[in-house]
Amino acid sequence: MTxxxxxxxxxxxxxxxxxxxxxxxxxxxxxxxPDHIAVIHGSLRMTYRTFYARSRQLASAxxxxxxxxxxTVSVMLSNTPAMLEAHHGVPMTGAVLHSMNTRxxxxxxxFQLDHADVKILIVDREFSGVVKEALDIASVDPLVIDYDDPxxxxxxxxxxxxxxxxxxxxxxxxxGDPDYDWHMPGDEWDSISLNYTSGTTGNxxxxxxxxxxxxxxxxxxxVASGMGRHPVYLWTxxxxxxNGWCFPWTLSVVAGTHVCLRWVRxxxxxxxxxxxxxxxxCGAPIVMATxxxxxxxxxxxxxxxxxFNTAAAPPPESVLAQMAEAGFEVVHLYGLTETYGPAVVxxxxxxxxxxxxxxxxxxxxxxxxxxxALEDLSVRDPQTMEPVPPDGETIGEVMFRGNIVMKGYxxxxxxxxxxxxxxxxxxxxxxxxxxxxxxxxxxxxxDIIISGGENISSIEVEDALYKHPAVQAAAVVxxxxxxxxxxxxxxxxxKPGMEASADEMIQHCRGLLAxxxxxxxxxxxxxxxxxxxxxxxxxxxxxVKNAQ
Length: 548
What we know:
The chain folds into 3 domains: 23-225, Rossmann fold (3-Layer(aba) Sandwich), CATH 3.40.50; 264-323 and 332-445, 3-Layer(aba) Sandwich (Rossmann fold), CATH 3.40.50; 450-546, GMP Synthetase, Chain A, domain 3 (2-Layer Sandwich). Strands 2-1-11-10-12-13-14-15-16 form a 9-stranded mixed β-sheet, with helices on both faces. It has 17 helices and 26 strands. The protein is α/β, with parallel strands linked by helices. The longest helix has 17 residues, at 48-64. Its EC number is 6.2.1.44. Keywords: Fatty acid metabolism, Ligase, Lipid metabolism, Metal-binding. One of its GO terms (biological process) is fatty acid metabolic process. Residues 460-534 form the AMP-binding enzyme C-terminal domain.
């Protein structure tokens, strides 16, 4: 048998192999740029030296309370410095960070606490009321620590709740060692965080991330966002959402500055952009609408171009034009909780700028190509697992494969097996593959409307509605119909001060779509959204069903 010299006496050892982890991003930034401002929160300015030391203090304090590998530490926090410290201090102990959606009700919070077997819970006082109610329901009895945000003043839109913990956050971490010798993961496959899906049907599923994926997302986010050295990032995206698309770990790669924003309000965003020189931010389309529709007195001039990463439906051309005029460059992303947030980017080619408007719009409507940290992206027939033809027309299911796909669902092997059937992660999103390798979503599998045997993409109808100048938000769902089986029903939220009629909306769509695709019914109302700005179609489907 021939001996392969490249596999002989060339073993892994501590000198040539270390597990990937995003925790080393912070350690490096603190070493190279110790005096650079890492975090801004109101009057607070925290350097990288202090950020790293406080994260180690938190880790040390947690370890002193017995927190170790395999334990879960939950946080119910806004976009504050404590949330950034938790993203580093919790995994420094080997434990798993569970960051909860701050708009959840008590029953779902209790379910998550029990399902994750939470040992310690850090709670911002804004949310102490609902968390107290959840703890009364839950079976677990974690150590509860109150976080009292110093920037949460009296003149705020929300009330500060009572203290429900046995300790205060600052007092707790003061017990820790700022020079704590934190743990590198024994294996980069070790779990780093737990994020629950929205749970629109039944209980939510717990999505588990590993250190390797989180580390790779740091590099990939820098590339996708076009970040140079020392970017200034505004926290408009909730850090509880897919761990803030992994940006709490990403910024340390390039020694960036986190500008915390407790509440997403137009005036506060413009103030931060103008005063701190914001270069990047992320958010759902609702954040764009908030910026564009702000009263003139709340807007502030700024000289820099701000990169705005957005996910969900592609922004209409009119919105992109308004954003560009306002000083923002929009980067369109796509992903899921199960893919660490964004895993696909509409990577723009300069020559596309020279296309006519219709072709340019078509290019911008596409979700794009895989992130640099994702190994494969495909559109396949979910039954045969064969790729669909790259013709831009044949619909299949969008599937992912690579190092930024979740480990699986916590304590749910059946759901994990179903999601990974055939060696690919099944997104549940339907789309097409274009000849140049760019994918474009057509719908969620459950959102396709079947009318008279024809498939209608709700996204296509929504895109048409968004082209009407009065439309701020739109969602289309199936309306049961005795003759056609289903027909499109449109829910439309108008821009402030604008008016339109149902007939006007239908005629507008008929100028852009085949008539059978156009909505038969139009309902004008505020469109329900999640805390991250995603439209809650399940609410609208129930509304349609109950109206029968």
